[in-house]
Every structure is written in structure tokens, then in C-alpha cells.
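Project standup — Tuesday

K.O.: blocked on the structure for the chain from last sprint. Re-posting the sequence here as requested.
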Amino acid sequence: MTKKNELILFLIVLFVYINSIFNPFIFDDYYLIINNSFIKNFKFFKKYFTTNLFAGGGEKGLFYRPLQTLIYAFIYKISGFIPVGYHLINIFFHSGCAILIYLL
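H.V.: unblocked you, prediction finished:
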């Protein structure tokens, strides 16, 4: 019964966020993705773990999220600046979190 419930949760999250898949980048996406030189080249890998989230985009901030920068770098290598890849990954992460909360 657990696998069925997990699938239902995944489908609910997918249904809620399906309208965002083909939307363009907005707000902070310009600093985090479009203008972020760190995600465009893995030579900045060390900076993922030593600077704030917005440093690659030229902004100041207090957010330390190296995993987010790393994930953006991998998505950039796969899909470049096509928003669909970023939105799909976010939907999968949201679904995973919903399933983990359910299991907890």
C-alpha cells in the first residue's frame, strides 16, 4: 500500500506544478541561473562551497546553499538556459520531499 500512496503523492505534486514546466525564468532566476558564472563552468567548483548562493550572479546575500549551486551546474550542463530542465528537477525534488514527509 505504501508504493501506491507514494505514487499518488507524486502525481498530486506533478498535477499542482505541471503548469510551471514551460514558464520562463523569473525573479531570482536571473541571478541564480542566467547571470551566474559559477554554474557555467566547473572550474568554480570550490566556490560552490565557500561563497553565498548569489555570488556567481554578482549579488550579495547570506544564503549558503552549495548543493543548490551544484545541482544548477549539472542542469546547466544538460539543458543550458532552457527552463524546462530546471522546473522538472524542482518538481521531482518537491515530490521527493512530499514522499519523505509522508514516510516520516
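K.O.: great, moving the ticket to review. The CA atoms of residues 20 and 47 lie 30 Å apart. Residues 83-103 form the longest helix (21 residues).
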